[in-house]
Amino acid sequence: MSTDSVVLVTGGNRGIGRAIAERFVRDGHRVAVTARSGEGPEGTLTVQADVTDGASLDAAIARIEAELGPVTTVVANAGITRDTLLMRMSDDDFDAVIDTNLGGAFRTVKRAIKSMIKARRGRIILISSVSGLFGVAGQANYSASKAGLVGFARAVTRELGGRGITANVVAPGFIESDMTAELDEATQASYKKQIPAGRYGSAEEVAGVVAWLASDDAAYISGAVIPVDGGLGMGH
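The structure corresponding to this sequence follows.
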């Protein structure tokens, strides 16, 4: 992709999404982020939107394209967790996570591809998780939503691959964040023992893989799952 393409990152106001937006800004792209609240990093256009609300996404993408130009890369990153054991998980806990993480990716990508189809080029990058492939107890809803992104990317690849559009999945493992920083030392040590690399990853390392998938170097890669997990998942 050219270095001045238009990139849309959902949930780009914090965590991995923010690091991804910062990387694309640094690489010279025009970057928009959606957020339910808060602001994206410096140099981005922040648009308030909720990925569970199609009308808010319609309005967000219309504004982004009016101000920055047609979207050529979309990074579906927005997500939530409602962790609890299956026996205690309410229907609402399950539905909300599926609707945001999987339904949100569908709603965003469906709207963003219109410009890509017209241009006959584009990049769709879905942020999954090692949880979706490896499985994590207490995350039946989250694991299911993140695994669903793999099937979604592969179906999209079948539909749009002939139009110069790729669809790939990035599956981060344990990433340094406010959430991992709150864990006590014993818990952190037990998690790190499971990771062959012996450390947590950084959001910037995830962003680097996303930037590469959006580049011309990855033009012949589609329907792939790229783990960024220090070896934790081992191809699962």
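The CA atoms of residues 58 and 227 lie 31 Å apart.
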